[in-house]
Amino acid sequence: MASGRNNQETGDISLLGNQHTQYPTDYAPEMLETFPNKHPDRDYFVKFNCPEFTSLCPITGQPDFATLYISYVPRERMVESKSLKLYLFSFRNRGDFHEDCVNIIMNDLIKLMDPAYIEVWGKFLPRGGISIDPYCNYGKPGTKWEQVAWERLTHHDLYPESVNNR
Fold first, then answer.
1. Which residues are catalytic?
2. Which of 1, 2, 37, 141 has the fewest CB atoms lying closer than 10 Å?
3. How does pLDDT run across 144-156, given as a tens digit for each residue?
4. Is the C-alpha dihedral spanning 99, 105, 111, 116 positive or negative?
5. Are 105 and 159 in contact (CB under 8 A)?
């Protein structure tokens, strides 16, 4: 790599900096890549704001558009952002309900990284006059994050934001 970083520092990242990226045409969890967390002894959040998420309605085939918010507390591994972008792009032709999309994404990221805590919140634009905003989270069982997940789930929408784009 041009930065002089070695594989121990960057992991096996192959997509970042690759000028010949192939965009997946179907659901592709294998696109996800990780790199080592250099601060595994510290709890901290990483948040991705993904304002261009698209998927398909499994019944009508019409497109659904959302902003996804993915927040997690890493342990040993972290998700690489370009691989996450390509993975999320892979939902573009996939037919899933909104609730399924956020849970599938969360489950794939748990399997990939084994985070201490993670949450995925989809803010979907309305179709038929109704918007759907599914939220899911997970805290590593047997850790303080398990209780954080329960508290966050039961209080996640106490102070909803102003909605001015729907």
1. 57, 64
2. 2
3. 999 999 999 999 8
4. negative
5. no
